Amino acid sequence: MPEPVLVVTGASSGIGAATARAAAASGRRVVLAARSAERVAALAEELGGPGRALAVPCDVTEWEQVRDLAGRTVEAFGRVDAVFANAGFGARRGFLAESPEHWRAMVLTNVYGAAITVRAFAEALRETRGHLLLTGSVAGRKVPPGSIYGCTKWAVTAMAEAARQDLDGSGVRVTLIAPGTVETPFYDEPVGGEQLTAEDVARAVLFALDQPPHVDVNEMLIRPTVQSF
User: Fold this and answer.
1) Which of 31, 157, 199, 215 could form a disulfide with 211 if both were Cys (CB 3.0 to 4.6 A apart)?
2) pLDDT of 192 over the 80 cut
3) How many CA atoms lie within 13 A of 156 on its CB side?
4) For residue range 91-140, what is the model confidence (pLDDT) as tens digits?
5) Is 141 helix (H, G, I), strand (E, B) or coil?
6) Is 196 in contact with 179 (CB distance < 8 Å)?
7) Do 35 and 58 contact (CB within 8 A), yes or no?
8) pLDDT of residue 228
9) What percent of the chain has pLDDT over 90?
10) How far is 105 from 186, CA to CA, in rounded Å?
11) What is the DSSP letter of 140?
């Protein structure tokens, strides 16, 4: 059987990069998508270069670019076994704390970007009876005060279940990965104490991927022990 292929959006840093490294170490081939062409190119080289890792500059808010990502994956590797819709970013809490322009970009990336990633890869995943994963958040289960970011992650939580039901009967598994605070540049003011690392979250992704085909881990909610929220 060919080595499985995992596509990761938001792969240039943080959870996306850590997951790509863990997946490559497990023997998977990886496709790395992010807006930062230089960073994903460097990571692809680190992970083995052509034949093992493909870098694709991609803005997940642009349908044509996401569709091209799916096409280039199949062209390069002939198949798609898993897709991790991980691209996203946050905002300061409070309805007066960020600009409407920032909100718009965040909603487009976190919600619309995830949705069109599902759309672009659904048929390829059906062909391999593959695996769709989406990055949610603890804030997608318990919304913090004034958190528009939390609202986007509530949408992703719903999207994972909507996708699971839409793909029901196809053999495609769907997993929502919902971390708490992670020690990445994403968090300007993390809770005190030892945070999750990106590698902690990557291990959760690999756990879900490595289950036998009849086991569908639908949601993983992961907090650092110091996080009370």
Assistant:
1) 215
2) no
3) 40
4) 999 999 999 999 999 999 999 999 999 999 999 999 999 999 999 999 99
5) coil
6) yes
7) yes
8) 78
9) 90
10) 15
11) G
Q: Which of 149, 150, 180, 182 is catalytic?
A: 149
Alpha-carbon separation of residue 48 from 26, 72, 147 (angstroms): 13, 18, 39
Beta bridge partners of 176: 134, 219
Strand (E) or helix (H) holding 92: none
Q: What is the mean pLDDT of residues 43-56?
A: 96
The values of phi and psi at residue 21, to 5°, are -65, -45
Contact indicator for 86, 8 with CB cutoff of 8 Å: yes
Q: Does domain 5-222 have CATH number 3.40.190.10?
A: no
pTM for this predicted structure: 0.94
How many whole angstroms separate alpha carbon 218 and alpha carbon 229? 22
The reply to whether 149 belongs to the active site is yes
Amino acid at position 72, single letter: R
Where b means 16+ CB within 10 Å and e means fewer, 177-205 reads bbbbbbbbebeeebeeeebbbbebbbebb
Length reported for the chain: 229
Closest CA to 91 of 107, 115, 77: 107
Tokens 């990336």, residue located: 109
Which 8-state DSSP code applies to residue 138? G
100 Cβ contact list (under 8 Å, min separation 6): none
Interacting residues of 23 by C-beta distance below 8 A, sequence separation 6+? 6, 8, 30, 202, 205, 206, 209
